[in-house]
Amino acid sequence: MIIKNIENKIKLAGLISIGSFLTSLVVCGLSFFLCYSLIVNDRKNIYVLDNEVPILVKQTGTEVNLEVECKSHVNIFHSLFFTLPPDDEFIKNNMEKAMYLVDESGLKQYNNLKEKGYFNTILASSATVTIKTDSIQLDMNEMKFKYYGIQRIERETSILKRQLVTTGELRQVPRTENNPHGLIITNWKTILNKDLDYKVKKNF
What's the rounded Cα separation, in Å, for the pair 48 and 65? Predict the structure, then answer.
């Protein structure tokens, strides 16, 4: 009888020990999971100092910012392609940067303008060509865009404003130093380029 009681107590102690061990494993596992989750979430937070006051800035995934990045990419490309001062080196440098953001459709338009003597005309007349973005319409489902802008061509004797509308598609590519948004414009074409206003400068 005494031996049976001892055996039962040993079994009970063993069960309690095993139960305690398993409970400890579960608690440790949950603690590890919670700590890992906290670390992952904490890494998404960035604190910026504003007059020595920390302000929380939260990181977001690329999907959240994709529409913003698409608009920025389209805007930068058009700014580079249509900002043309009477400086041959500056124009070449801008075009070189722009070609990293577009496929062969952009190169084709550049070569067409070059063959027509467009850039030589700008240099010869000391014209300054700039562009102001009106709006950019995006279809995020098909990754298509329509760009609306006003082109300003200023010469020594006149100022011409033209409405410019272009269309194209966007494709995601690996990010590089020359293409920080990781996007490339495809099938780019100009669908409207018409005069809006022409002013003759006053000569005194």
Answer: 20
- Band of residue 96 on the pLDDT scale cut at 50, 70, 90: very high
* CA proximity to 171, closest of 145, 152, 196: 145
198 band by pLDDT with thresholds 50, 70 and 90: confident
Q: Give the Cα separation of 34 and 25 in Å (integer).
A: 14
Q: Global pTM? A: 0.69
Q: What angle do CA 66, 143, 45 make, to 5 degrees?
A: 10
In residues, how long is the chain?
A: 204
Neighbour-count burial of 80, counting CB atoms closer than 10 A to its CB (0-12 exposed, 13-18 middle, 19+ buried): buried
Nearest to 58 by CA among 68, 47, 72: 47
Alpha carbons 10 and 39: distance in angstroms, whole number: 43
Q: Which residue has the tokens 């002013």?
A: 199
Residue from 102, 96, 94, 112 nearest 74 by CA: 102
Q: What is the pLDDT of residues 150-162, one digit of tens each?
A: 999 998 888 999 9
Give the bridge partners for 164, in sequence order. 149, 193
Positions of E strands within 87-157: 128-139, 144-154
